[in-house]
Specification:
Blueprint (H helix, E strand, L loop, with lengths): L8 E14 L12 E7 L5 E6 L3 E6 L2 E7 H4 L13 E6 L3 H4 L1 E8 L18 E10 L9 E11 L8 E4 L13 E5 L22 E5 L31 E4 L4 E6 L5 E5 L5 E6 L11 E2 L2 E3 L8 E2 L15 E4 L6 E6 L11 E6 L5 E5 L12 E7 L2 E3 L1 H5 L6 E5 L5 E5 L4 E9 L2
Parallel strand pairs: 1-24
Antiparallel strand pairs: 1-28, 2-3, 3-4, 4-5, 6-7, 7-8, 8-9, 10-11, 11-12, 12-13, 14-15, 15-16, 16-20, 17-18, 18-19, 21-22, 22-23, 23-24, 24-25, 26-27, 27-28
Length: 432
Amino acid sequence: KDPIPAQISPSKWKLQLQHYTTAPATAQKAPLARINKMGVLSGEKERVFTVDLRGILYEITDKEWRMVLDMRKERPDFIPLPGLATGFGSFAFHPEFYQNGLLYTTHTEKTNTAKADFSYADSIKVTLQWVLTEWKWDNPSATSFSGKGRELFRINMVSAIHGVQEITFNPLAKKDTEDFGLLYIGIGDGGATENGYYQLCSDKSKAWGTVLRIDPQGQNSKNGHYGIPKTNPFFKDTNPSTLKEIYCRGFRNPNRITWTPEGTMLISDIGQTHIEELNIGVAGADYGWPEREGTFVINHRGKMDKVYALPADEAPLKYTYPVIQYDHDEGKAFSGGFVYEGAAIPQLQGKYIFGDINNGRIFYAENNQLKLGEQAPIHELELLVDNEVTTFQKINGKEKPDPRLGVGIGGELFIFTKADGKVYKVVGVSTK
């Protein structure tokens, strides 16, 4: 009933936030703007972008929002409904964008819009499809998109939840390293397990519940639209059913992928019954879903309303367990976060800062305590918004605050809330 009895401890810090800007409203009622991800385009000019799940990629310049790409116009079969993270899911600029003009996106389309590259038996329903697209800009320095899009793959989903919510390149990979230009893709289980189809994410022959790694410029995939790196952990697997695109697997909803300053890959995973978790990304690792939730057993063939202690005889390396976890008396959906690397707030350096989507609480763990085989202590950060002690729940009233964290120019930290579309800049910490 209470898998982790210890409560998250308050820290001595209060996080100082200032309202920075507000996203253009894309609805008349909450969530007013389903802003989902913020990222910096590096290179000859640093630029900040964010995406609204309802179909718009924006550039933010001097607190002003400019529409850059409108998925609703580019893809007529695009659908942002029913919510639950459907829509324009994620974006990633190629590390050589200013030379090649390549942008990658994920979005949802109607069922049977086109044949899926990753599908399952006809007896299992398809609610929608997620699509990975490469966009070739005519002019990479332009302030809005003009060019052509090329589909890399599409995947069917049992339900609207747990889709393809994250794509990213390793920002630390140098041009002469094997990871440079390889795209990581977080694919959730699509609600397969809780709808009774746990077999769709049960082994390495399935794409659901995985992080894939592909070479978008290659051609040796089954559909010929992208490449599979020879350094992928299962590339030399002799089983013909193995998906060689898989980098690691065993996730319910790997909704954010980031890297620490030292180059450690971090994957946050939103839980089902009791446990929210952060994992260190390890090539070829299995993180346990749908048989494990955090460091606990879950009965994926049953009601899935309880978790159980690990068996005493479990093989020591069968599963890779989280480095951060908390249970559902603290929050119910891990928002993902970043190790702070900015210069403006020295007290935050070396801290992995993250939040909970449902209740809006903000936490941190020390980066140097994120170690395989251990769970790092979590501390809560109180919030000072425009110098008033408050919470995102108080600010948003009855609406779920749905906070997300983003990084701006210089590594400075931002927090934005979907309920009201507000973007806050983290400007300092206080002990008062």
